[in-house]
# Entry
Amino acid sequence: MSTFLMIQAATDGAVLGEAPVTSIFHGMLGQGILPIIVLALIVVALFAHAGLKWALWLAAAVAVQIAIGILAFDAPWVGMLHAANAFTVLALAEVGAYAVAHAPAYVPHAKASMRPAT
# Structure
C-alpha cells in the first residue's frame, strides 16, 4: 500500500529522495515478463498433456494480479489485495508444479485403450 501511495504522490508532483527504480522494475517484470512465462507454461502443458488446469488457474491469477496492480494507482488500499494475491500466484505455481511432478505417465483415453472381453 505504501508503494502505491509513494507512486501516487510522485505523480502528483511530490519530490522523492530517490527514484523508485525498484517499483518500475517490479511493474515491468509483472506486466511484461511474467505473462510471457505463464503463456509459455500453458504451451508446455498442452504439449506435455499434464498440468493444463494448473497453468490456466495460474494465468487467471496473474491476470487478476495485473488488474489489481493497475487499479491500485487510483485506490492505494487495493495494494493490500495485490500483496495477498501474490501469495495466491505463488501457491498455484507450487501446487501445479507438485501435481505435474507426481502425475502418472500419460495414458491414452480409457475408451480407446479398453477392449471388451471375448
